[in-house]
Specification:
heterodimer, A: about 150 residues, mainly beta, Immunoglobulin-like, 7-stranded mixed sheet, 5-stranded antiparallel sheet, about 5% helix, globular, B: about 500 residues, 4-stranded mixed sheet, about 0% helix
């Protein structure tokens, strides 16, 4: 089982989301009370890409972004929770977010296997798109940052 | 054209089990070109072959890119970058060549270099095909050395029918500010240039002065549209979230087949948005090939959830006109728009989904050849078909205002692959894949009916569905993300909605 250790390289969600010719857009989105959005994942490689999607809440800790387990007050539904994207193709994933407590932030992490080392350790990459949900869409991210300071 | 496309895609299907193979084929009226390209990718190299017909002439191309002992090797048709640190627009100039190139970057010595030997060429590049015709023998050497974090030296040498040698030095005292000076000769003609650049989050500015002989060229090419700056060039740009402003003054010399065209263009543009309201305006004027050119635009718009309304005013030497576009977003997949000009209303729309993306509509563009703003029709369609096949088509409007189109298909082969349909719906199938020790397995592949799903780091798979029915369950051990040979110890044959199943696997060959 040791050789099946998955080394997860978590990229900060706000850095450029592009690795191994896989691109994710948008990196973040702002919503009002009804949060219905979507993001695109493009496989720029010549091989099919297996992806799983996971949900976490985002919060500020000491002024820095932190990803924590999805809060019970945040409810997220994805159009699909895993996908296999053929070579050079783009997949659109739709999501809905509802929050019992405003504002809230959710990161949808796309986890992809990107190969493995000679020692058999699997390499995976995670890229995230963040959805900010507030009472009003305009300035939601700024409000989220201010509320969580 | 349709026959060519069909034959090529049929040919591609027989290679579906090959590793890293891409076959593209298509037709375009932009350059009266039709052709095909085969590209194969392995772990350390990328090889492609292309051929076709351009305006009745047969052209072909071949490239190979590989890495050998830390050297990046490019053979065949290449585009060689020939940017200078003093360029007004950084990194914008490259030229086509055929031959063998070797490049290497060394972080320890802070140097990088590229050596090339071959010939200059004229390249024809389409999304589905490329080809080249060789011209004059040529050798080139480009060298960059970062002396320290503040100082950088570059040398650019080209030997051909004429000689080019340009040396440059850049000084970077602190992050937004850069100074650069350069001098030498290009195609046997003298050249000197200086540049001051400022690039910060909100403010960008460039001040460039170039003194060059009229016959200066970095490389002499048979057909080129290279644009070089001459004299004083300056730009200032301010960007913030609600407001942007740019101002430019450029002097350019364009090397065309008919000779050197001198142009001086001044432009100012601004745009801003506040809540649902936005506005933009731009003005340009100057002289090109001895003729005065000028134009002005202004527009306002409102955008509120499903509705966007934009109206614009355009003025050029040929007169002025007003147009408007109304866009209604019906669903997240569908939007429609109406382009209004004088008494006419033209309809367009857009449909966006995983299988197909199609858009068609009208807009207004400026055409320098006509010195006028004209209504432009544009359409794009992309089909993402099963088994990694993509078909793309679309229109392009040429600088003289004529509409041209291209259509091409691409097929990728990389071994047997199950196609996963995008899914959504109110019913949910779920389960867990664990080892015999009870540990979750990330990236385990499970086929539910006709859809392949994967487990997350908790070993859980989820699949929404619109239909409520029992599905067959099959564990695809060959598709597991984790390496090694996996075996299924136990698992269900079927799964029902809202049922949570468990699959136990073990690894026998880590």
């Amino acid at each position: 089982m040791k050789t099946v250790i998955i080394l997860i390289l978590t990229l900060a969600a706000l850095t450029t989301a592009a690795t191994a010719q896989v691109t994710l857009s948008p990196l973040n989105a702002e919503f009002g009370k009804k949060a219905k959005g979507e993001f695109n994942l493009t496989n720029g490689t010549f091989a099919p890409l297996s992806v799983t999607f996971e949900l976490q809440s985002v919060e500020l800790s000491n002024g820095k972004f932190a990803m924590v387990d999805l809060k019970p007050t945040t409810h997220v539904k994805l159009s699909e929770y895993s996908a296999r994207i053929p070579a050079k193709q783009t997949r659109t994933i739709a999501y809905t977010v509802t929050c019992d407590v405003m504002p809230c932030g959710v990161v949808i992490l796309s986890t992809m296997a990107t190969g493995h080392t000679n020692e058999g350790i699997a390499m995976a990459t995670r890229m995230g798109t963040i959805a900010y949900v507030c009472d009003k869409q305009k300035g939601c991210r700024d409000w989220f940052l201010a509320q969580n300071k | 054209m349709t026959r060519t496309l069909a034959i090529a895609l049929l040919f591609a299907s027989s290679f579906a089990s090959a590793q890293g193979l891409q076959i593209s084929s298509g037709d375009s009226t932009i350059t009266n070109a039709m052709g095909a390209e085969v590209k194969m990718v392995t772990a350390n190299s990328e090889v492609s072959l292309a051929g076709g017909v351009v305006s009745g002439h047969v052209v072909g191309g071949a490239t190979e890119a590989t890495i050998y002992r830390g050297l990046n090797i490019h053979a065949g048709d290449v585009m060689l970058p020939f940017g200078l640190m003093t360029d007004y627009t950084a990194g914008s100039i490259q030229f086509s060549a055929v031959g063998l190139g070797v490049s290497k970057g060394d972080a320890k010595t802070q140097t990088s270099w590229t050596a090339f030997a071959g010939a200059t060429s004229t390249q024809y590049i389409m999304p589905f095909f490329y080809g080249a015709k060789t011209s004059s023998p040529m050798a080139a050497f480009f060298f960059t050395h970062h002396i320290n974090p503040a100082w950088t030296f570059t040398s650019s040498e080209v030997l051909s029918d004429t000689q080019t040698s340009i040396q440059e030095l850049a000084f970077h005292p602190f992050t937004p500010l850069t100074f650069a000076v350069g001098a030498g000769f290009g195609s046997n003609a003298p050249f000197a240039s200086g540049r001051i650049g400022w690039k910060s989050e909100h403010l960008n500015g460039v001040l460039n002065y170039t003194k060059r002989a009229a016959n200066f060229q970095r490389v002499i090419l048979p057909y080129t549209t290279l644009v070089e700056n001459d004299g004083l060039n300056a730009s200032l740009g301010f960007t913030s979230r609600p407001f942007t402003f740019t101002a430019d003054h450029t002097n350019t010399l364009s090397a065309l087949k008919t000779g050197i065209i001198a142009s001086t263009v001044n432009s100012v543009s601004a745009s801003g948005s506040l809540s649902f309201f936005s506005a933009n305006s731009s003005v340009f004027f100057g002289e090109s090939a001895g003729k005065n050119i000028s134009g002005q635009t202004a527009g306002i718009g409102i955008s509120e959830k499903f509705l966007t309304v934009q109206t614009n005013w355009y003025r050029s030497a040929s007169g002025s006109q007003v147009s408007g576009i109304v866009t209604e977003k019906i669903t997240r997949h569908v939007s429609v728009n109406q382009y209004i000009q004088k008494d006419a209303v033209n309809f367009g729309g857009e449909y966006h989904a995983n299988l197909i993306t199609v858009s068609a509509g009208y807009s207004t563009s400026y055409f320098p050849v006509l010195d006028a703003f004209e209504k432009v029709f544009s359409a794009q369609i992309t089909l993402q078909l099963p088994n990694a096949m993509t078909v793309t088509g679309g229109t392009v409007t040429t600088p003289d205002g004529k509409t041209r189109w291209s259509v091409y298909g691409t097929k990728f082969g990389q071994g047997n692959m199950t196609h996963a349909e995008p899914v959504s719906g109110k019913y949910e199938y779920s389960g867990a894949v664990v080892t015999v020790d009870g540990l979750p397995v990330l990236g385990a592949a499970v086929m539910l009916g006709k859809t392949e799903v994967f487990t997350n780091k908790e070993g859980i798979f989820l699949m929404p569905s619109r239909k409520r029915k029992t599905l067959a369950v099959k564990v695809l051990v060959n598709d597991f993300m984790a390496p090694g040979k996996w075996l299924v110890v136990s698992g269900p044959m079927t799964i029902a909605p809202d049922e949570h199943v468990q699959i136990v696997v073990t690894i026998v060959n880590p």
